[in-house]
């Protein structure tokens, strides 16, 4: 086994990242020294907090090519997606007669639940929703979106990079189709922002969701970009109260979190190129190492159009639960949704046409700013050992090796 590795190792950076210590340091004074409410307009505690929030707005705007005024702070991407999707639906809804819909929304089958569930809610409220089926490579193309467009389409919401696969949808091109048809375009860019170059002007974005804890910032804080001109996008507020964030999102600002998010954005901008190259090398090593050590190793999703830090791999002739148990030292995600009561294979993998068996036996391994080469070597050795061990115990794998066509077997039911 690889030496000098502290276990367990963390390969679940798509679920959340370690907060960068430089981010924590930037946040600390705002707990105990500069603890003013940025809404307090008549004393210096308020002004100091407001100035800190303004700085964070500028840091985020600089990362994504926006104007500071176009950033609305939220508690994260779940809230951001809800606000963007329900906020547009509320503002741009048509009368709807019961015969005709209140408007049409285009999304995709393998979006995050934080997009799918608001869309399902809107369906109950009289909107039509089209769930695009991705290609076998996991990609949503501009052409798919163009074909799904209707006279009454009011919103397209397509994520930039998929959180289970890392695959990258044709976002700038989808934005161009939306612009041409005067339809609002929202992208859930939670896995993208901070890791890949983003320019809301060049990339034709109207609304964009991002979250602190996916980009080495704190949990419970995030934001949405809301375009203010050409076109000006208006949203119905989902949280009402004190009128903060120009009335789009009320509630006392999470100043410490926002300062952390701003600092995280600044660091991501500075370190994007070097992080990207390092992560890509680690990811390539991991995939090559596993593929060379074993047969029946399948990388899911498009091989090139992918984030550098995520890989999703299925291992044939292995049972998913057993695999997770055997690699307890490696913290990662599995294609089996073992968080729910039922053992359903991932709906994301299923949407690509991947069978239940391979979906169940898949791992999502996602690297981050602190992942080391030694950890990757450890992961290769450990996963190879576990897969080989499980295959040794597998009657199916025995049969396969003896040349029996497993799919042709008629299993006897009792
Ligand atoms: C993590 C994630 C979310 C949810 O973000 P929170 O800030 O945790 O609410 C939404 N969409 C995608 C693509 C994600 O990866």
Please report the total strand number as a whole number: 13
Number of domains: 2
Beta-sheet strand percentage?
A: 5-15%
Major β-sheet annotation: 7 strands, mixed
Number of helical segments?
A: 13
Properties at a glance:
single chain; 414 residues; alpha/beta; Aspartate Aminotransferase, domain 1; Aspartate Aminotransferase, domain 2; 2 domains; seven-stranded mixed sheet; four-stranded antiparallel sheet; 13 helices; globular; binds pyridoxal-5'-phosphate
Task: Please tell me about this protein's structure.
The protein has 414 residues and is an alpha/beta fold. It folds into two domains: 143 residues, Alpha-Beta Complex (Aspartate Aminotransferase, domain 1), CATH 3.90.1150.10; 248 residues, Aspartate Aminotransferase, domain 2 (3-Layer(aba) Sandwich). It contains 13 helices and 13 strands. It has a seven-stranded mixed beta sheet with strand order 2-8-7-6-5-3-4, with helices on both faces. The chain has a four-stranded antiparallel beta sheet with strand order 9-10-13-12. It has a two-stranded parallel sheet with strand order 1-11. Helix 5 links the parallel strand 3 and strand 4. Helix 3 packs parallel to helix 8. It is globular. The model has no long low-confidence stretch (mean pLDDT 95). It binds pyridoxal-5'-phosphate. Pyridoxal-5'-phosphate (PLP) binds next to helix 4. The site of pyridoxal-5'-phosphate has 13 residues, from helix 4.
Q: What's this model, at a glance?
A:
With 414 residues, the chain is of the alpha/beta class.
């Amino acid at each position: 086994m690889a030496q000098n590795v502290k276990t367990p190792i963390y390969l679940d950076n798509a679920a959340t990242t370690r907060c960068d210590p430089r981010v924590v340091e930037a946040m600390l004074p705002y707990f105990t020294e500069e603890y003013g409410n940025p809404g307090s307009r008549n004393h210096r505690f308020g002004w100091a907090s407001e100035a800190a929030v303004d700085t964070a707005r500028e840091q985020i705007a600089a990362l994504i090519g926006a104007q500071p005024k176009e950033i609305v702070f939220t508690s994260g991407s779940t809230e951001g997606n809800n606000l963007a999707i329900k906020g547009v639906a509320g503002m741009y809804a048509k009368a709807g007669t019961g015969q005709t819909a209140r408007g049409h929304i285009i999304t995709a089958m393998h979006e995050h639940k934080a997009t799918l569930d608001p869309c399902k809610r809107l369906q109950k409220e009289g909107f039509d929703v089209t769930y695009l089926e991705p290609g076998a490579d996991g990609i949503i193309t501009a052409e798919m979106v163009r074909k799904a467009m209707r006279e009454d389409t009011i919103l397209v919401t397509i994520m930039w990079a998929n959180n289970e696969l890392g695959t990258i949808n044709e976002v700038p091109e989808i934005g161009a189709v939306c612009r041409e048809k005067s339809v609002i375009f929202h992208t859930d860019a939670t896995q993208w922002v901070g890791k890949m170059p983003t320019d809301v002007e060049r990339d034709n974005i109207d609304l964009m969701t991002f979250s602190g804890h996916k980009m080495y910032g704190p949990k419970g804080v995030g934001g949405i970009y809301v375009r203010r001109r050409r076109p000006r996008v208006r949203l119905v507020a989902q949280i009402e109260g004190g009128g903060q964030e120009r009335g789009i999102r009320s509630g006392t600002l999470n100043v410490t979190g926002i300062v952390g998010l701003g600092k995280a954005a600044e660091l991501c901008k500075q370190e994007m190129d070097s992080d990207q190259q390092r992560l890509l090398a680690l990811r390539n090593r991991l995939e090559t190492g596993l593929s060379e050590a074993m047969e029946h190793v399948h990388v899911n999703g498009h091989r090139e159009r992918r984030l550098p830090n995520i890989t999703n791999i299925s291992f044939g002739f292995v049972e998913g639960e057993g695999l997770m148990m055997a690699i307890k030292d490696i913290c990662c995600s599995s294609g089996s949704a073992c968080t729910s009561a039922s053992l359903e294979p991932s709906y994301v993998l299923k949407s690509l046409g991947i069978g239940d068996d391979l979906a169940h036996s898949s791992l999502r391994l996602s690297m981050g700013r602190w992942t080391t080469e030694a950890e990757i070597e450890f992961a290769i050795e450990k996963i190879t050992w576990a897969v080989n061990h499980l295959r040794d115990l597998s009657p199916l794998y025995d049969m396969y090796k003896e040349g029996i066509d497993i799919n042709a077997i008629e299993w006897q039911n009792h």
